[in-house]
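Posting for a labmate who doesn't have an account.
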Amino acid sequence: MTTANGKYMLETVASKVLEGLDDVLRVMQRAAEEIAIGKPPEEIDISGLPLYMARSKEDQSGRVRGVVYAMDYDQYMEMLDQVATNSGLCIEELTELEVNLPQMEFGEDLVTGGFEDFKGICVERHNQCILELMEAVSVLLQRRGLSVACIPDEDVLFYLPLK
């Protein structure tokens, strides 16, 4: 996706991903603004979203430093794939699978070795396009003042610091 057309396509898809996150981002922004003007976090309407208030361990006052939204990693990846597919960018076609077979285990009584103690087969998915799309989404979020962190197989964290 290093061509100019490819980059434009990624930016277009990333913009559509942000449109899908717009409700969440709006609630986060409103919560951050209300906390910044002194409203207690318990009184803020978060529209049923699982928002978290980030506090610094070093700050003994317990002051809120930012607003965090956690999305399931698989849900985030599914959203990226769905938006990309609807936009004509088929992520699945660009996925490469790498299969790692277990190493043979050599035991005391085995001359040639065997698979008695094998740990299993490992299949890894590699997709440069999805990584570039995630980067494009991250850049757009940074322009809005947010940070995003992906923890594979766990969560995607969206962080909005207070101003």
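Reply:
Got it, the structure tokens are right above this. Strands lie at 51-55, 64-72, 96-100, 122-126, 147-150, 155-161.
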